[in-house]
Amino acid sequence: MLAKGLIAATVQAMGQSIVSGEWAPGSILPTEIDLASKYGVGRNALREAAKVLAGKGLIKTARRYGSRVADKAHWNNLDADVIGWRLTDKSSHARYRREVAQLREMIEPGAAAMAATNASAAERAKIVSLAKAMGESPSSDAIEEDIAFHLAILEATHNTLIQALRNPLEVMLRTLFHADLRLHEAGLSYDPNPAIHVALASAIAGGRPEEARHIATAIVIRGSEGADRLEQLQTGEEITE
């Protein structure tokens, strides 16, 4: 039996090669012999890795042509590994941060307003408790509290379709927040900002949907602004306050 670590390493290497553009969408992958030589693994490991990558939507395999890189439209861009392979520099980080902010802006302000209307007393208390528990200092613990807060709001909408977005949102936020935590640029590293979360929790607990919508919008807009600043750093432009 192959070691899982060997297959995982092959998945990482091949996935990074695909997402980085080493092999363009639609192109046929090198032969198993060439790939085995490139990554220093056997054919069985390559085949298992190919199955994993196919599950992530990155490759398609058919008997008539072998393995081909899938079109980007078919990639599972909510997969944590695919996201991680995308985040290679400030430019890709900025692009991902903006996309997350755009998606959150479509979902979270409305969800916050709905939670302010539909949440039970216990759910309101939980949201307030999570906001108050959020640490002041950027850390892995603060990230988990931050994520739990936003997921609790989705749950409190009592809308099953919105609640179904819980897992994708969790993956996006955890990947983004940890990537931000690794930034060392002033004003761009992950900031839990508990004050604004407490304000949002207060609006939800107080049953004020439009106030909750406004504050939630302000939270996600910060992500787009951060993306602009990252792109300026990447291009060497002066960052203005």
Strand order of the largest sheet: 1-2
How big a fraction of the residues is strand?
Answer: under 5%
Q: Whole-number average pLDDT?
A: 89
The Rg value, from CA coordinates, equals 21 Å
The poorly predicted ranges are 237-241
| Computed structural class | mainly alpha
Instruction: Tell me the distance between the termini.
Output: 56 Å
- What's the helical proportion of residues? 55-70%
The biggest beta sheet reads:
2 strands, antiparallel
Note the total helix count: 11
H/E topology pattern? HHHEEHHHHHHHH
Number of strands: 2
Overall form: elongated
Features:
67% helix, mainly alpha, elongated, 241 residues, disordered C terminus, single chain
Structure overview:
It contains eleven helices and two strands. The protein is 67% helix and 3% strand. The chain has 241 residues and is mainly α. A two-stranded antiparallel sheet has the order 1-2. A hairpin with a 3-residue loop joins strand 1 and strand 2. Mean pLDDT is 89; it is low at 237-241.
Short description:
This protein has 241 residues and is mainly alpha-helical.
Topology overview:
Layout (H helix, E strand, L loop, with lengths): L3 H16 L12 H8 L3 H13 L3 E4 L3 E4 L10 H7 L3 H29 L2 H13 L6 H16 L4 H4 L2 H16 L12 H12 L3 H27 L6
Antiparallel strand pairs: 1-2
Helix pairs in contact: 1-3, 1-4, 5-7, 5-9, 5-10, 5-11, 6-7, 6-10, 7-9, 10-11
